[in-house]
């Protein structure tokens, strides 16, 4: 949610402002040539159905609605800290990266701020979901820390070869990880890593395989879809240590709270519903049918208006 909701280049930022032009007026001339002109209204009519222009208008609307409702709760430091992290990540290429995305530093800051406003609204809504039933469900599904060793490989045949060695009675799994694993975060430590069912350090398939093993057990080759299309990665897991799960839910209350909130914040349908509620409460009305569809996903069909009164 938070990284993709408002992602993308704002390359047609001026388009939305042109929507204010009266349809009975051609507006100012944008381009003149011998015997003809291109006016603001002509330009608006031409580009308003462009998906990028529609996304700009949606982003601007979300920004205005959420700024009014939550703006006092997000300070500039949060935005500047995120910018600092990006500058550290991209170094001297940061300005070029922004430019390629159709952004300036200021429009990027505005984008980050809007994203944080939405995140805050979603977090507040998610906290209302911290019911006894939610805690019980999270507790039933929770597996506490295990310590395992993993070997990640990019080739299935190589993985099968390493698996055969790993299951040998005299196998040194840690050395196999150091010599063969492509996971730079763990290989130097013999593939060792500690995680629970809420962790994101390893793929879900790997976690499930580890949880199903007995101590010192070695999994079969686990195939995991890679981050690039049509690519796969292959894991072998050895379980080193299990933590006994307490029967007392209170022992995990803070961990379970994080689990519940994270699941809600990563639930696209939940996020969409929160945005929809805020847009409806702001009494959004779409004045041009060209923009109808981009709001329908949040506030339904019809005239895209809400009978709710605006929040003060």
TrEMBL record:
Top-level lineage group: Bacteria
Primary site of residence: membrane
Keyword Electron transport: no
Topology in the lipid bilayer: Lipid-anchor
Domain PpiC: 143-241
EC number(s) from the headed UniProt entry: 5.2.1.8
Protein keywords: Cell membrane, Isomerase, Lipoprotein, Membrane, Palmitate, Rotamase, Signal
Gene3D superfamilies recorded: 3.10.50.40
Signal peptide bounds: 1-19
Catalysed reactions, as listed in the record: [protein]-peptidylproline (omega=180) = [protein]-peptidylproline (omega=0)
GO cellular component, one term: plasma membrane
InterPro entries in the cross-refs: Foldase_PrsA, PPIase_dom_sf, PPIase_PpiC, PrsA_foldase, Trigger_fact/SurA_dom_sf
Localization per Swiss-Prot or TrEMBL: Cell membrane
A Pfam family of this chain: Rotamase
Keyword 4Fe-4S: no
GO biological process: protein folding
GO molecular function: peptidyl-prolyl cis-trans isomerase activity
NCBIfam families linked: PRK01326.1
Reported function: Plays a major role in protein secretion by helping the post-translocational extracellular folding of several secreted proteins.
Family affiliation: Belongs to the PrsA family.
HAMAP family for the chain: Foldase_PrsA
Descriptive protein name: Foldase protein PrsA
Organism encoding this protein: Streptococcus mitis 11/5
Lineage, opening ranks: Bacteria, Bacillati, Bacillota, Bacilli, Lactobacillales
Gene name of the encoded protein: prsA
């Amino acid at each position: 949610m938070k990284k993709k909701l408002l992602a993308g280049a704002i390359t047609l930022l001026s388009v939305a402002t042109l929507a204010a032009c009266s349809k009975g007026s051609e507006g100012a001339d944008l381009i003149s040539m011998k015997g003809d002109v291109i006016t603001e209204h002509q330009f608006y009519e031409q580009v308003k159905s462009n998906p990028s222009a529609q996304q700009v208008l949606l982003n601007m609307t979300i920004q205005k609605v959420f700024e009014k409702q939550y703006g006092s709760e997000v300070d500039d430091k949060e935005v500047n800290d995120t910018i600092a992290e990006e500058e550290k990540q991209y170094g001297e290429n940061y300005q070029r990266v922004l430019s390629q995305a159709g952004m300036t530093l200021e429009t990027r800051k505005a984008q980050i701020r809007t994203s944080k406003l939405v995140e805050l609204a979603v977090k507040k809504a998610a906290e209302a979901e911290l019911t006894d039933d939610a805690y019980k469900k999270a507790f039933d599904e929770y597996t506490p820390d295990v310590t395992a060793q993993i070997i990640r490989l990019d080739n299935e045949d190589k993985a099968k070869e390493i698996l055969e060695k790993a299951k040998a009675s005299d196998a040194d799994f840690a050395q196999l990880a150091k010599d063969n694993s492509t996971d730079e975060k763990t290989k130097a430590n013999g593939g060792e890593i500690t995680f629970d069912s809420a962790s994101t350090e390893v793929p879900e398939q790997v976690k499930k395989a580890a949880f199903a093993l007995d101590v010192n057990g070695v999994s079969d080759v686990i195939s995991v879809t890679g981050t690039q299309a049509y690519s796969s990665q292959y894991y072998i897991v050895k379980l080193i240590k299990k933590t006994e799960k307490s029967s007392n839910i209170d022992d995990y209350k803070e961990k379970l709270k994080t689990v519940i909130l994270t699941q809600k914040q990563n639930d696209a349908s939940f996020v969409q519903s929160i945005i929809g509620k805020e847009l409806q409460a702001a009494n959004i009305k779409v004045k041009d049918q060209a923009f109808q569809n981009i709001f329908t996903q949040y506030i339904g069909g019809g005239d895209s208006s809400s009978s709710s009164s605006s929040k003060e």
